[in-house]
Amino acid sequence: MKSNVIKLKNRPEAKPTNDDFEFAEEQVADLKEGEILLKSIYVSVDPYLRGRMRDQKSYVEPFKLDEPITSSIVAEVIESKNDSFKKGSHVHGMLAWKQYQISTGKDLQTVDGAKAPLSAYLGVLGLTGLTAYFGLEEIGKLKEGETVVVSGAAGAVGSTVGQIAKLKGCNVVGIAGTDEKIDMIKSDFGFDAGINYETTDNIKKALADACPNGIDVYWDNVGGEISDAVFFLINQKARIVNCGAIAVYNDTEIPKGVSPQPFLIKNSALMQGFIVSNYQDRFQEGISQLAQWFGKGKLKHEETIVEGFDNIPQAFIDLFDGKNKGKMVVKVD
Amino acid sequence: MKSNVIKLKNRPEAKPTNDDFEFAEEQVADLKEGEILLKSIYVSVDPYLRGRMRDQKSYVEPFKLDEPITSSIVAEVIESKNDSFKKGSHVHGMLAWKQYQISTGKDLQTVDGAKAPLSAYLGVLGLTGLTAYFGLEEIGKLKEGETVVVSGAAGAVGSTVGQIAKLKGCNVVGIAGTDEKIDMIKSDFGFDAGINYETTDNIKKALADACPNGIDVYWDNVGGEISDAVFFLINQKARIVNCGAIAVYNDTEIPKGVSPQPFLIKNSALMQGFIVSNYQDRFQEGISQLAQWFGKGKLKHEETIVEGFDNIPQAFIDLFDGKNKGKMVVKVD
Prior knowledge:
The structure is a homodimer. By secondary structure, chain A is of the alpha/beta class. The first copy, chain A, has helices at 48-52, 127-140, 156-167, 179-187, 203-210, 224-231, 246-249, 261-267, 283-295, 312-319; strands at 2-8, 21-27, 36-44, 70-80, 90-96, 100-103, 109-111, 147-151, 171-176, 193-196, 215-220, 234-242, 256-258, 270-273, 303-307, 327-331. In chain A, the strands form 3 sheets. In chain A, strands 3, 4, 5, 6, 7, 15 and 16 form a 7-stranded mixed β-sheet that branches. A 6-stranded parallel β-sheet of chain A has the order 10-9-8-11-12-14, sandwiched between helices.
C-alpha cells in the first residue's frame, strides 16, 4: 500500500510558502510483530512548527530537509500486531504528516471519541489546553480580581487561557486582529473586553482604557509591538507568560523592540518562557482538570477544521495570516 | 545652627549634570522631645537615584523639585532627646543630603563601627549586600557548577554577586569597562574570567569563549547591548536577574533592544526584576549571612570614597561614567 507524505523541501526564509513543502508518495512496509498501522484522522498545525523549520538550536531538534514534518496527530489504528492497541481504536501523539504510517505505539496515548470529539484531543484536551493550564498555574499564578491580558486571544491557546482566567475570577482582556474574533472572545469565551489591534490607532491607549487597574498578568502569544505596549501598563509584581512570539517568528533579522528591563525592574515583574513539555510528568493532573471543566461545559472549544491531507501546508501558512479561529486542525479524508 | 543642603533643581534630561543640583543653606531647628540631631558621615550615591529624578511612576516616589535628595546615609548622633539613640552612636537609614538634620529615629537602625567600618553599612553589609543576596537567593537560585555572568561586575553589587556565586561553587564571568576593573574582579574578588566590553570588538563571541557551557544565570546591572548579547547564549531554564539598567537610565527615548521573548521561550528561561525592599521582612536573615561571610574574610568590599559634602552631586554623576570601583560613597568632612 502507498501513502502520501509531506516533506520539508526548503527552510522558509520569512513567511512559509507552499514551495517550502514537497508532496511525495511512499510504500508502506508490512507490519511486524508489535507494530500498528495508523491512518491519520486529524492533523494539528501549530505556530511553533515554524521554529523547527529553522536550522538552529532550540528546545526540540530542527526538522530535517527532505524528511516528513511531524506534529500532533489523532489517528485510527487500522491494523494491529500490538496487544496494547486494538484495531478501530484511536491514538494521539507526535506523528508524521503521512496518510498512513507504522508505529510501535511508543509515546502514543489511546483517546476515546465517545468522551469528547476526536479533534478536541488536539486542542482543549491536548497540548493546547495543557499549555494554557500549566502556563497559568506555574507562571501566571492568577489571583481573583486581577487583570489578565491575552494576546492572540482568539487562537486555541489564547481562548483557553481567557476561559481559565475567568474561571479563576479575573478581569480578562483579549487582543486579536478582526472584529469577528473580538466578538467571538467576548460572546463565546466570556472575555470582559477585547481590542482589535488592526483597527486601533493607539494600542497603548486602548490597553490603558481596558485595564484601568493596570495589568497583573500578560499572556503573550505574539511578541512584537503589541507586547511592547503592555510593558507600560504592568503592575507591581506582574507576571508575563511568554508562550509564543508569532509576530516575530518569520523575521529574517533578530527582532528588536522595547527593552523590558527597566519595566521589569521598576515593577519587580517577571517574564518567563516555557514549553508545555516542561510539565510532562504532570500532564495527567492537567488533563483531569481540563476534562472536568470541559465536561461541565465551562471550557468551550473553538476550532477551524480544514479538509484534505493536501491542504496541510496551506493551513499551516494561514496561521501566520490569522485565518484560524481557535485551534487549526486538518481533517484527513 | 546652619546646615548645607543639596536639592534637586532640574529633572535631568539625559545624563545628570551639576546644574541639576542646587546648594542651599538652612537653619536647623531646635531639638524637641523624642528627636535626635544627626551629622552625616557617609552618603551613598547610587544609580537608582537617577530613576527617582524622573517625574514618573516607579517603585518609589519621584524626588520633588527644590527639595533635598535622599539616599542611604550613615550619620552620627550628635545630640539626643530620644532614649533609643545615644549621643555619639551611629545610625543608618534613608536620610536627606544635608550636613545636619533632625530625625525622630523612625526607620533608622543603629550600626556598630567596631564590628565593621562604618562605610560598610552602606555597602556589603547594607542595601548593596542585601541586593546581591536576595537577588541570588530568590531569582538566581544558583546551583553548584553553573555558569554565572555578571555585568557591572566591578560595581558594588556586581562584585558582591560574583563573590557569593563563587561561594556557591559557580563558574563566574564578569563584564566591566576597563582593564583595571577586570584585573580587580579576578584578583581581588575571585571571578574566573572577565570581559572588558570597551576593548572587545565582539561581545557575543567574547561571552561564548568565556562560557563554553552556556550561561545559566545572568545578573544584569546594565541592560542595553551587553545584555542583548547574553540572550544568544542562555541555557535551558536560565535565570536573568534584572537588577539595574544603567546603560539606558539616561536615555531620553524609550530604549529598544533585542526582543528577549523568543530566547525566553525556546529556553524556558526567565527574566525578573526586583528591588531589595521586596525582601525587607527578611533583611535580618540576609545581614546575618553577609556578616558571617564578611567576618570570615570571604566577602571583600571595594569602595571608592570621595571626600566632601560639596562633591556629592559629582560623585553621583561619575557613576554613569564608571569612575567608581565598588561602592561609591561620599565622606562628609
